[in-house]
Design goal:
Elements (H helix, E strand, L loop, with lengths): L5 H31 L4 H29 L3 H34 L8 H23 L2 H26 L4 H33 L6 H6 L5
Pfam families: PhoU
Organism: Nitrosopumilus ureiphilus
Protein name: PhoU family transcriptional regulator
Length: about 220
């Protein structure tokens, strides 16, 4: 039986899916353009602005649902967490735009050694896709793996930064340090998403293994 709140929940899921697609496109576009030496700042800015607009749309819709329908526990967790996750989406879009600004400010960086960036960006793109999918499927196992991926990005950041401080190439060192910082922050927001997905599914942001197992499909 369809409840009064169901059409609004479906609309919320649709908006969140749109935001997820735009986040994946904007971050991938920004990172790839930096490494390839192309300028996509205007396109990424447009995507970032669109994501931000949808974040406000999610806020208005969730507020409306809370006022009109007095959602039960499961729905309430989804509504509350959707607001948090949509904010994380908006931050992804902003960091993507920040990355294009680094590319615009520093210009051609083909002389730089970008091995650490290539490794970090590969992991970050994987994390974002997994975060979007885990939310769409409410798959708590995928959400848990995001935290493991984030540790890799943190390790690269901490290992690489001291070497950049000692570098003789100021331009490359500054550009790489900024990119690594933005990627590290994107990783943090992906973990924030992971915690929110855990909360929707299990009722806990950092659930125990036993609780995760009891809420995992095909057990």
């Amino acid at each position: 039986m369809t409840r009064l709140i169901d059409p609004s929940l479906q609309k919320l899921s649709f908006i969140m899916a749109e935001m997820g697609d735009m986040v994946i496109e904007s971050v991938s576009l920004a990172i790839d353009s930096y490494l390839d030496g192309t300028n996509t700042m205007d396109k990424v800015l447009s995507l970032s602005d669109s994501i931000r607009s949808k974040y406000y749309e999610v806020e208005d819709l969730t507020f409306d649902m809370l006022l009109k329908y007095q959602p039960v526990a499961d729905d309430f967790r989804l509504i509350r967490s959707s607001t948090e996750i949509s904010y994380a989406f908006s931050r992804f879009g902003r960091y993507a735009y920040d990355i294009t600004q680094v590319r615009d400010l520093f210009g051609d960086v083909s002389e730089c050694t970008n091995a650490s960036l290539v490794e970090s960006t590969k992991k970050v793109k994987h994390m974002i896709k997994e975060a979007v999918m885990s939310f769409a499927e409410l798959d708590v196992r995928k959400a848990i793996k995001i935290r493991e991926d984030e540790k890799v990005i943190d390790r690269i950041y901490k290992e690489r930064l001291p070497k950049l401080i000692e570098s003789n190439n100021t331009k490359c060192a500054l550009a790489e340090a900024l990119l690594l910082r933005y990627l590290e922050r994107i990783g943090d927001h992906a973990v924030f998403m992971s915690d929110a997905i855990n909360y929707i599914v299990t009722g806990k942001h950092r659930p125990s293994e036993e609780r995760i197992a009891s809420h995992t499909k095909n057990q």
